[in-house]
């Protein structure tokens, strides 16, 4: 995953520096700007809103730490999402996370202007612009120097707020907290969405993971401490502010925390609190520049933006161009937008990123790629990450229509930018996408399911139901019958069916079954340890006769398919209806094309994992007969290297689950169907799975299985897991045919 030493960053940041960076991105707007609108929205219960937002942020922090300890690279959420879900999703997350912090940084710069004007009569925008330029310059000089500034700012800020909290607890009037919830549950939830932007920095702080010493130990300690500390601080400040001031006065104040401080600390105390507001907004803006500048740096290393942004400064070793670009955009937004617009837009982008990070952890845990080895793991996964993602997304409706429309528009623009960059730019990294990771997760679940269930009969004293054609059996069918009886320790129920036309009495129907078919089959099977029960059924509906013969002890239904394979014949055929029926057991359809011994078996598939049934039945035949067994998977030529490696690993793991020795073959080809047909022609028996939900308009088994089964010259065993019910229109067609009626 590395992209070369020329763009690696120095590891300068320790635990305390990361703690102050994370805390600094949160302590600011949340405490010194939002108490007014928060109190107006929920009254004293606004403290509860900060606590709920903090819990959601803590879950996202756990996910971010797991991802960061597995992938300690610059770029934070962008790097995590791109490696898990591919460059397209990574582009959206990268730009979204970058803009979220830029908006928050611009919001902090405007807040800085507000609090400076509490102390001196200067223009708000002038303070914002000068402050932004100085912080950009400082970040250009180096991350270590930035960390030192964060240490000083946060230490000073915490000291001042400690004085505020100590005096406020004694001055708070509990009568001001009654009623505690003034606007109901909806008001609390709405306010949670409003204040959520205060927590964005905790996840974005992982963007400096590549510059952290010992990230496996440093990041969990620093980030968990930061989110817990800041949440308690928010809750405490809101309780104090609402405890010393009426809600109406808080809502009207432009600086509610200093105004509250003046009530119990005097004019000097209020001025000191205003100075703390300056520290807080400087801290937020500085941390935003530091963290957000790492997103274009990481994206440029992957070819999603110009490569110039990935070149560290030769003098300071920092991503200079990325830092100056971020600083310029932050200043422009501070001039163009008001505080409320900046807060809501940044918060909406941040919520989407939080949710995607939680989903990323679940996806990587399921796929388990070889490179994913985090030093920290989120507890109670996947329940906790998914609950955190759902809670975060539920806040978006409360962020305002403008923010929602902007987020949607940005996602569309991000997708457009990605496809444009792939056409005009260099190849982007990584070369896999979300589908590859989802496929990897399917492979993992497939292995776990097969490891626990293969070779274990689902019924006590199992039976295998076999439908023969006219009481006869091809040598390959006999081999399959003997193998399944031995492998599952099952008795055989052998069935032959005569279909009687409508209006003809069943008892008068003639049939072509020889009288000695039972003795002949029993002699050819030569089973000593398993009973064989024979039955001949006359019926109006052949498919229903098979279904009615299935009992609670039936483990498998094996059907001998003698009819020709032509697309026009497959539709509405007996085998078609069987494959589409609600079988409670597995169904195997054998198309015999030879009489020689089965010495070589191939289990083939295109995409996705094998069904349990197809590998288990192939393994059963190979184990009993001693035939060689090969697992074959065909992938397109343009498949990503991640997809190829995942498929190869899946095949290798699957061989360890089987009873018989098995080889594996991975075919990379431009024509999957032709490659599988060619491989099938060189074996004695091909085993393929019928899809659970085939395309009923254009396919019988499924496109690839249809083509291979029809074109190969070898015997084919098509296997289907139970559970799919025949569609209503097909059932109606069957009943009409049963009574001799044909729709016009």
From TrEMBL:
A GO cellular component entry from the record: plasma membrane
Cellular compartment(s): Cell membrane
Membrane-protein topology: Multi-pass membrane protein
Recorded GO MF terms: transmembrane transporter activity
UniProt keyword list: Cell membrane, Membrane, Transmembrane, Transmembrane helix
Top-rank taxon: Archaea
Chief localization: membrane
Domain UspA: 599-720
Transmembrane segments: 12-34, 46-67, 88-114, 120-140, 152-171, 177-202, 223-248, 268-291, 318-337, 343-364, 376-396
Gene3D superfamilies, per the entry: 3.40.50.12370, Amino acid/polyamine transporter I
SUPFAM superfamilies from the UniProt entry: Adenine nucleotide alpha hydrolases-like (SSF52402)
This protein's name: Amino acid permease
Protein source organism: Natronolimnohabitans innermongolicus JCM 12255
């Amino acid at each position: 995953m590395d992209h070369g030493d020329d763009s690696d960053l120095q590891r300068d940041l320790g635990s305390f520096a990361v703690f102050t960076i994370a805390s600094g991105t949160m302590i600011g707007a949340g405490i010194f700007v939002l108490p007014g609108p928060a109190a107006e929205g929920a009254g004293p219960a606004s403290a509860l809103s900060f606590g709920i937002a903090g819990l959601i942020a803590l879950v996202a922090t756990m996910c971010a730490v797991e991802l960061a300890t597995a992938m300690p690279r610059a770029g934070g959420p962008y790097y995590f999402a791109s490696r898990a879900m591919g460059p397209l999703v990574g582009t959206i997350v990268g730009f979204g996370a970058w803009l979220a912090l830029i908006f928050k940084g611009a919001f902090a710069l405007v807040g800085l202007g507000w609090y400076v004007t509490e102390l001196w009569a200067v223009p708000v925008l002038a303070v914002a612009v000068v402050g932004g330029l100085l912080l950009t310059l400082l970040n250009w000089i180096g991350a270590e120097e930035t960390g030192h500034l964060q240490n000083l700012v946060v230490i000073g800020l915490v000291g001042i707020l400690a004085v505020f909290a100590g005096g406020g607890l004694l001055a708070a009037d509990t009568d001001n907290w009654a009623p505690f919830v003034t606007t109901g549950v909806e008001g609390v939830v709405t306010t949670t969405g409003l204040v959520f932007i205060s927590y964005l920095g905790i996840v974005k702080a992982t963007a400096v993971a590549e510059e952290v010493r010992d990230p496996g130990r440093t990041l969990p300690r620093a980030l968990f401490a930061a989110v817990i500390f800041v949440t308690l601080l928010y809750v405490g400040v809101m309780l104090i502010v609402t405890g010393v001031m009426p809600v109406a006065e808080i809502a009207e104040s432009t600086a509610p925390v200093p105004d509250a401080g003046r009530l119990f600390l005097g004019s000097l105390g209020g001025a000191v609190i205003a100075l703390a507001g300056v520290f807080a907004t400087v801290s937020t803006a500085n941390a935003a520049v530091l963290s957000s500048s790492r997103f274009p740096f990481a994206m440029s290393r992957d070819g999603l933006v110009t490569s110039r942004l990935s070149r560290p400064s030769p003098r300071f070793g920092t991503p200079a161009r990325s830092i100056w670009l971020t600083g310029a955009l932050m200043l422009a937004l501070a001039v163009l937008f008001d505080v409320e617009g900046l807060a809501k837009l940044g918060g909406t982008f941040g919520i989407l990123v939080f949710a995607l990070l939680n989903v990323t952890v679940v996806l990587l845990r399921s796929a388990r790629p070889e490179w994913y080895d985090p030093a920290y793991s989120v507890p109670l996964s996947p329940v906790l990450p998914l609950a955190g993602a759902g809670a975060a997304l539920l806040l978006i409706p409360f962020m305002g229509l403008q923010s929602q429309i902007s987020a949607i528009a940005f996602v569309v623009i991000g997708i457009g930018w990605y496809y444009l960059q792939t056409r005009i730019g260099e190849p982007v990294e990584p070369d896999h996408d979300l589908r590859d990771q989802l496929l990897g997760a399917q492979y993992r679940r497939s292995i776990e399911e097969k490891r626990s269930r293969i070779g274990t009969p689902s019924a006590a004293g199992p039976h295998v139901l076999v439908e023969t054609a006219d009481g006869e059996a091809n040598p390959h069918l006999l081999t399959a019958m003997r193998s399944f009886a031995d492998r599952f320790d099952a008795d055989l129920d052998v069935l032959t069916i005569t279909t009687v036309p409508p209006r003809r009495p069943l008892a008068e129907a003639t049939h072509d079954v020889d009288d000695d078919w039972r003795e002949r089959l029993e002699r050819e099977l030569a089973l000593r340890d398993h009973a064989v029960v024979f039955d001949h059924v006359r019926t109006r509906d052949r498919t229903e006769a098979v279904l009615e013969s299935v009992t609670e002890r039936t483990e498998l239904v094996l059907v001998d398919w003698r009819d020709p394979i032509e697309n026009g014949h497959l539709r509405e055929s007996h085998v078609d209806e069987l494959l589409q029926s609600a079988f409670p057991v597995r169904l195997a359809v054998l198309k015999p094309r030879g009489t020689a011994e089965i010495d070589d078996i191939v289990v083939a598939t295109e995409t996705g994992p094998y069904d349990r049934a197809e590998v288990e039945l192939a393994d059963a035949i190979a184990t009993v007969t001693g035939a060689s067994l090969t697992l074959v998977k065909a992938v397109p030529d343009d498949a990503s290297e991640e997809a190829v490696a995942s498929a190869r690993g899946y095949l290798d793991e699957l061989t360890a689950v089987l009873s018989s020795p098995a080889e594996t073959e991975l075919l990379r080809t431009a024509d999957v169907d032709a490659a599988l047909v060619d491989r099938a022609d060189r074996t004695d028996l091909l085993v393929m799975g019928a899809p659970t939900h085939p395309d009923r308009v254009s396919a019988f088994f499924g496109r690839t299985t249809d083509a291979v089964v029809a074109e190969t010259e070898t015997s084919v065993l098509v296997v289907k897991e139970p559970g799919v019910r025949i569609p209503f229109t097909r059932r109606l067609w069957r009943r009409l045919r049963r009574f001799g009626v044909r729709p016009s």
